[in-house]
Automatic annotation (TrEMBL):
Transmembrane intervals: 48-72, 84-102, 141-166
Pfam families xrefs: FA_hydroxylase
UniProt superkingdom: Bacteria
Keywords tagged on the record: Lipid metabolism, Membrane, Oxidoreductase, Transmembrane, Transmembrane helix
Protein name: C-5 sterol desaturase
């Protein structure tokens, strides 16, 4: 089966090199609003390592996902015509809405955050940051299960997930300012996604959209870029070791669950937002 993301890897690397060259040869002082502008060698190597690990893990995991989607598709009597244009419009909207909720839950439920935190662990923001992906992709599975049940063929669902990720690669940049107002109103843009990656109080848990930002406007999770963005985590991990980046929050979560006073607190550590602790 054709894998759009793997096919796009040369495009990712070429775009990354172009952006690096723009910082290296075209930057001026006013292009660097903070100390982490541009590329850091160790940070970039870590991001690329996380991306390679994600691709290798997905060589196996995608097979599991295909099998699950195919099983669900075989159980439902619904079949949406693959040749109909309106089906592809519905798929675009359904996939993007599924992504919104996956992304939102990944910030608001600590068990899911333990996987997603990897993507926010860099204090830099450039195209290499887009490749800093989780090594535990299983947390995404539940949010798309309804699509094959609604009659979308499994290969269509996988393709929609891929074009969504492909689009999002290009919003991870500081080299693009605000776009025309109609674009900013409808679509996720570099400006919106910079705010999403901010650890400033005003930016926390905002702008979850993948391709469209209208879901955030609808659910009141939208925040425009209004002040300089401080990238990274509220409490940064200060490591470039890929294994620590991949699993540090799972380790912290396990410590909290293991030392919790009762089963209720253990459950809350798993299901409440990051930073939750029982009242002392």
């Amino acid at each position: 089966m054709f894998d759009l993301i793997r096919a796009a890897i040369p495009v990712f690397l070429l775009s990354l090199l172009i952006e690096w060259a723009a910082y290296r040869y075209l930057s001026h002082d006013h292009d660097a609003p903070h100390e982490h502008s541009g590329y850091g060698t160790r940070d970039t190597i870590t991001s690329l390592s996380m991306g390679v690990g994600n691709v290798l893990i997905n060589l196996f995991w995608k097979g599991v996902v295909v099998a699950i989607y195919a099983a669900l598709y075989s159980l439902t009597p619904l079949r949406l015509p693959e040749q109909a244009w309106w089906v592809w419009v519905l798929l675009f909207l359904a996939d993007d809405y599924a992504y919104y909720w996956y992304h939102r839950v990944s910030h608001e439920v600590r068990l899911f955050w333990a996987s997603h935190v990897v993507h926010h662990s860099s204090q830099h923001y450039n195209l290499s940051t887009a490749l800093r992906q989780t090594w535990v992709p299983m947390t995404a599975l539940p949010f798309w299960l309804v699509l094959p049940l609604l009659g979308f063929a499994p290969w269509m669902v996988l393709l929609a997930q891929a074009w969504n990720l492909l689009y999002q690669f290009f919003v991870h940049t500081e080299r693009v300012g605000r776009l025309p107002a109609p674009v900013e109103y409808i679509f996720n843009t570099p400006s919106h996604h910079r705010a999403h990656h901010g650890s400033n109080d005003v930016y926390l848990d905002r702008n979850y959209g993948g391709i469209l930002i209208i879901w955030d406007r609808l659910h009141r999770t939208f925040q425009p870029e209004t002040e300089p963005v401080r990238y990274g985590l509220v409490h940064n991990i200060h490591t470039h070791q890929p294994v620590q980046v991949a699993f540090h929050e799972f380790a912290a979560l396990w410590r909290d669950v293991r030392t919790a006073r009762n089963w209720r607190d253990r459950l809350h550590y798993l299901t409440r937002p990051p930073g939750w602790h029982p009242e002392r």
